[in-house]
Structure formats: structure tokens, C-alpha cells
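Sample intake sheet
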Amino acid sequence: MNSYDIVIVGGGPAGLAAASAARDAGCERILILERDRELGGILNQCIHNGFGLHTFKEELTGPEYAARFIDKVLEKHIEYKLNTMVMDIAPDKTVTAMNRTDGMFSIKAKAVILAMGCRERPRGALNIPGFRPAGIYSAGTAQRLVNIDGYMPGKRIVILGSGDIGLIMARRMTLEGAKVLCVAELMPYSGGLKRNIVQCLNDYDIPLLLSHTVVDIQGKERVEGVTIAKVDSSSKPIPGTEIHYDCDTLMLSTGLIPENELSRSAGIDINPVTSGPFVSENFETSIPGVFACGNVLHVHDLVDYVSEEAGRAGQSAAAYAAGHAKHTENADIRVKTGPGVRYTVPTTIDTVRMADKTIVRFRVTQVYKDQYINVYINGTRIQHKKKRIMAPGEMEQVILNKTQLAEYPNAELTIAIEPEQA
């Protein structure tokens, strides 16, 4: 059985950044296992710009951003295997994988980094009435068809869901000559970045129908039309509000789900809110020596944040493989969600092991205007920051200082969205 210091599952932006950071931290034996035919992950089909503003201080396309990290992996002579599917991760960090060249094989690792990314929510999870005709695509599948394979999914398109991929595909299909009739969103707010609403919908006069959903799909062989209705506060369609659109394509952009089947089979504790692992401040999961980063952990809005977190996970895995940075007993601060906060990453902070500053990222539960992000330790407020606007489609963060947290070992930290008088 081959052995490595670190095995990384996934060769997308998270896996590449983690591998590069681990090598910079002094780790020599690193292996990336990628199931696709090339490194880069989903970025290879994201040909629009807007990537890299935080990481490289310039605007790049998805393939250009991926190429920067692929070049780092190649320059540092980090090993990788393509077309390789990981089948199992044992609690002792034995990784079982298979490909056409090697067949089924096992690798013993000192540390494992999970970087499998996420998948789209399918139509079957949405309970939309109607037949199952051709012309229904997830937005990511349609993006691959257009940008990589060179096929047009359709000419008259309705998009359900206002996630970032759906918004970007509204613009992409318009530029390719299709007519995007509308984007319908079940929630009373968009699930995507504000800049994508402006650049992908407003700039092309594509209507965004909030609090609307698809209630019927017409057509047996091919989509012939869809019916959209307004929904009430319980997300139930309101009779009499139906709008019919003649179209040949329905695109679904109704959410992303972290790809954690491997994590569950390994016995890793999963956060029911994010569908990703619970992690500590160094991105270690409930199994010592197994780390998680990127969209397998929680769905990010910017790939720059994926790379940043993955870099810290790579450094942590390198330290663990070298026998350092083990967990400190009775030094954990438990991070809790207060009013208006949906989840936090991480959920625990080791006050001895943590870096000088630790970033806690979270998403809010609804749109907030002129509210405060308050941070409490054991009921004492230690941060009070006003935000003009916060929305579920954009991640928020607080930065915690080690010297401040060291005064409260084995405490409880709460992040809340509150008005000024709170």
C-alpha cells in the first residue's frame, strides 16, 4: 500500500489551493485524487469574468483562475491522479479509490483533506407537477453544454431559482441568442450576489419575479410551456396569480448541496443546516486528521474565499501530518448562532491552537437593513458592527482575536443580528 502525508479528495479550486499551501508549509508527500479528466473543477466551465479580485487583485475568468493554481501544483511537483473515483475513506485515513489504469487501490494517509465540492439540487427534489419532457436542465448542466460542449439547450427559456449560476446563465443564454423570458424565485429575495442581479438581469431587461414558482410544466416529448404562480408566506401557490409562458426550456437554479456521501460513510459529523461537516478553526472535522474545505464544507459565494479557506486547511493538514497542532483539551470555544444567523463556520475554536486571528463566516436568515452584527462571549458583547444591508445570498464574517479569546477558554460565543438598542 502506498503512503502519503496528505491525500486530497478533489482537484477543483479548494483541492488545488490546499495542496499548494500544504507544500509551502513543508509537506512533501501530497496526492490529489480527481474524478474528472482534468484539474480545475467547476471553474473550467465558468468562462465569465469576476474571479480573483481578492486573491490576485485582478479580474479573471474561471479557467484563468483555475490555471493559476494548476500552475502552482505543477511547479511544486505535487502528484495527482485524474479520472480517479474515491470509493471510501476509513477512520484510520486509509483511502480506497479506483481508475482504469490502477484498478482498485488503497492509500494510507497521515491526513486527508475533503475538497469534493457540491452538486445541484435536481428537479426530483422540487415536486413540480407535470410530465418529464426533454428541455429541463439544471443551470450547471446547461452551462457545461454551452461553454464546453458547444450545444444550445433551447431558444425560449424560463429559469427557476435566482442562485448565481442561474443568474449567470440568464446572461449567457441571452448573449448566445436565446430569449430568457423571466427568472422566478420562490423566496422574497434573490439567492445570488447583488452584482449578478445587476449585470446579468437588469442590464438585459430580464424580469426577476420574487415569491414566484413553477406550478406546471406543459409538454410530453419536449417542454412546450410553463405556468408560474405567486406564493404566499408559506410558499404555497396563490390561486388566480398564474402566468403562462410559451418556452422550450426550463432551467433550474434552486440551490447547491455539498457533496458529502464520502464524509457520511466515514462517520464524520454533518451539520444539518449546511449539509457539510462540522469543523474547528483549523478546518478539522470530527475525525482527527481529516479536514474539509471549499463547497464541500459550505456553499461559498466567491471562489476567492474557497481558496483562502482551503489554504488554511492545507496548512493545518501539513501541521497534523508532521505531528503538530493537535487539539487542546478544555480550550474550545463553542460558536453558536444567535437571532438572524443561519449557521457559522467554524463551530468550535481551540484558543491555544488558533492563529492570531480567526475568521468566522456565516449567512443571515433574511434580508436585513441597517442592523448590527453583535458578537457575545458568555453574554458579554465583544463586537458591535453596523451593516447597511445583509442578504442570505452573500456571506458575512467576523474576525476574532486570539488574545481576546484566550481569556475565555471553554466558553460560548454567539453571533447575532440585532438592532442598535439590543
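Comment: Residues 229 and 241 are 5 Å apart (CA to CA). The chain has three domains: 1-120+255-326, 122-254, 327-422.
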